Amino acid sequence: MNQHSDTTFDDPMNPEALLKWYVEMGVDECITSESVDRYAVSAQMLEAKKAAQAQQQAPQTNRQAPQQAPSQGAASLSPKPKTQPNGPAQQVQATDEMVHMAVELAQNAKNVEQLREAVLSFEGCHLKKTAMNTVFADGNPKADIMFIGEAPATDEDRQGVPFAGDNGKLFDQMLQSCGLEEKLGDRSNVYITNVLFWRPPGNRNPTLSEIAVCLPFLERHIELVDPKMIVLLGGAAAKAVLGHHEGISRLRGRWFTHATPGLSRPAQATALFHPAYLLRSPAQKRRAWGDLLSIVEKLETL
Question: What domains, with CATH codes, occur in the chain?
């Protein structure tokens, strides 16, 4: 609990005091009465990603692929549905349909501006309904290095720009210190985006289904920018792009090869602590600085 809260919570039966306390603690969304089978959502996300990759490799004339049924392996990961016709199963099916729609829109984009318009027109992610702005990207789309964060936070949502507020200030300071920004706030040498384009309520972590529905746009985004290097900020971004299940502490400092059919060449990819995490854990700034110097050194050789 936040010890600096001014709200007294002496009477737990007082609805007004309870609601005020919830707001101060950052609870700004309701939980539905239906439970969600996260195992089924996870399995469906894996199937959707496989389908997205298959459609990327297919000829352009065959983009309109039929609905794919989950594989036997994926089906075995989730419990068999009970007799209820509605509920979590319908949510998974809707997510799968939206993922296929996202794949179609993303692959039809021939440049970054067309992709931006596709994201703005996309209604398949429920986060868009609660967000103030669509946060697409910032910086130079012709830059050699592309930074990818997790999701917009409060300041990003208000301004419509990735890495704003305190997170953005620290991020810009890091970039200027290592030479990637000539002056503070000048992002003309880098390109920045997020896995998600809309802020999750309460700045909570993105769900697997939310990542799945935005991932086709991100993968196409990377192809259109075609960077020499990709830096993934935070564990969620690293897991989504690299496909690894290890935490950020194990992924940072390592190098991976990111290759898709739409890239002119494989991109070098690595993970870095998210600026928001560094603000909460300043002791990790030393490790992040060392990683950042290694990133700049490797970029000069590409």
Answer: 88-299 (3.40.470.10)
